[in-house]
Amino acid sequence: MKTQKSRYCVKGMTLAVSFLVLSACKSQTVKMIQSQTGVTAECSGSSFGIGLFLSESFVDGCARVYENRGYVALQR
Fold first, then answer.
1. What is the DSSP letter of 39?
2. CA angle, 73 as apex, 25 and 42 as ends, to 5°?
3. For 55-76, what is the HEC assignment?
4. What's the pLDDT at 21?
5. Cα–Cα dist 32/53, whole Å
6. What average pLDDT does range 2-9 have in this prediction?
7. Contact yes or no for 24/49 (Cβ under 8 A)
8. How far apart are CA 42 and CA 60, in angstroms?
9. Phi, psi of 32 (to 5 degrees)
10. 38-45 contacts: CB < 8 A, separation 24 or more?
11. Which residue pairs, CB below 8 angstroms and at least 24 apart, start in 57-65?
């Protein structure tokens, strides 16, 4: 009996952790400045669940484009 209760407890904990991971939310912002002109730009993205990695990839790609144009990241 005790082992069956333990199995249910582990399954319940696994289910709870799975819901937390899938419902996680993230937002990321990178502020950029063009050092010669002082013009600023901002790359930002937000997502939840499995899309967390897509958001980070999008923001990194955006920041690279601005860096290629002479911008420098102020803060990440």
1. -
2. 55
3. HHHHHHHHHHHHHHCCEEEEEC
4. 55
5. 21
6. 68
7. yes
8. 11
9. -120, 150
10. 40/74, 41/66, 41/71
11. 59/28, 59/29, 59/30, 62/30, 63/30, 63/32
Look up residue 17 and give its two tokens. 């952790």
Domain boundaries, the chain: 25-76
How far apart (Å, rounded) are the C-alpha atoms in residues 69 and 13? Answer: 49
State pLDDT tens for residues 18-68: 555 555 677 789 999 998 999 999 999 887 766 666 778 889 999 999 999
Residue that has been written with the tokens 């980070």 in this structure = 56
Closest CA to 40 of 75, 4, 16: 75
Most distant pair of Cα atoms in the chain: their distance? 73
Residue 40 has which token pair? 């600023």
